Amino acid sequence: MKKIFWNAILILNFYLILYFWFTNSSNLIHGQTTGQFLIALGRLVGLLSAYLILIQLFLVSRFSIIEKEYGFDKLNRLHRWIGFFLGIFLISHPVLLSFGYSKINNISYVNQFFNFVTGWEEVFTATVAFIIIIFTALISIKKIRTKIPYEFWYFAHLPLYIAIFLAFSHQVQTGDMASGGALFYWYLIYVISIGVLVLYRFLRPAYLFFKHHFVIEKIIKEGEGVYSVYISGRNISEYRFQAGQYANLIFLQKKMWFHHPFSYSDSYNSKYLRFTIKSSGDFTSKIEKLKIDSLVWIDGPLGTFTLKQAIKKKFLFIAGGIGITPILSIIKSLPPQSGSILIYSNKNEKNLIFKEELKQSNVKTYFFITKQNQRIDINKINELCQDYSERDVYICGPTQMIKNISENLIRVGVSTNQIHFERFSY
């Protein structure tokens, strides 16, 4: 029911934008020349570009209602698809306007374009916004995104807030949203969208930070390049999360001011929070250099990789590498004798972390070593857990592993509602 409501809101706003565009550009739409029609079309794709940007703000705001309804992975995929169409609309906007005005003014397209940039003050600011947004879109293309550090990708997105302000200034000074009810409506959706973003991305974490005063209590080496960071604070028992969720952390220590998502690797215990971090070549390689009592900014809990998604009473957990962290959190929240099974894969024996905790969990555990050609496939799953089709299956690990296992489970008849995963990819 909630999805219907949010879909209805999206469609309603789309039609409102069409209404204001049609009303205020009617003289151009019904004009006698091709140039007028191109200008009207250019205005429309400009408005739709702005609308898509506002939707993107909602998707990255971590608005809890939407995240719980759709989940991180679905929102992430939607974010990328919208980004694709946003790029097309953004490029089409100046192209259509330049062609339209060039035909009306009887000058070349190139001359008209440069007249816009150099002669129209509000167009210059829009051009700056355009460059920022296109650059951000380019570094979000999968082939480029996978070759750059997460930290660079994250910080490169921050100028988008400047771009949004510049684009808004351009829209309310000229075009179809510059006066009357259209102007009020445009202000309203911007205030709501930015307000939600500020509330959930900044004010909520700030409230938690000042309430709990999160600090590093201790750091434990779990394996080669793997460290658990224990975090305590004031009234830490009041900080609640669900097993399987994650949070975005910023360690407020010199040369460590990076924003990165990590899963809780322990269930709620009212004493501390634990995040287990593997060195991945970026700032995570410096985790061992963190200092005790350093402050920590925590944006979370986030995510829907929890038992709330389960539809069965028995569970099969499949973990690969550091993907054991959210699964261990879930396992430790289970009641005794749950009858659950864990299949845990890693490159070699020394990378298998939390073996002692898993032994104490009463969950039947099978270890796989990939360097010994031990790989998890549907045959192995059937061999170790013959009633897997009667269980909820929670998978966490490398993206390709999640894809292969989930597809194979679906192929042999396991319902998609029984298969749960979050890729935690960006």
Overview of this protein structure:
The protein has 426 residues and is an alpha/beta fold. It folds into 3 domains: 2-198; 213-302, Translation factors (Elongation Factor Tu (Ef-tu), domain 3, Beta Barrel); 307-421, Rossmann fold (3-Layer(aba) Sandwich), CATH 3.40.50. The chain has 15 helices and 11 strands. The strands form 3 sheets. Strands 9-8-7-10-11 form a 5-stranded parallel β-sheet, sandwiched between helices. Strands 1-2-5 form a 3-stranded antiparallel β-sheet, with no helix packed on it. A 3-stranded antiparallel β-sheet has the order 4-3-6. Strand 3 and strand 4 form a beta hairpin. The chain is elongated. The model has no long low-confidence stretch (mean pLDDT 87).
Alpha-carbon distance between the two ends: 28 Å
With helices defined by DSSP (H or I, 4 residues minimum), what is the helix count?
15
Number of domains: 3
Number of strands: 11
**Helical content, roughly?**
40-55%
Give the neighbour order of strands across the main sheet: 9-8-7-10-11
Structural class: alpha/beta
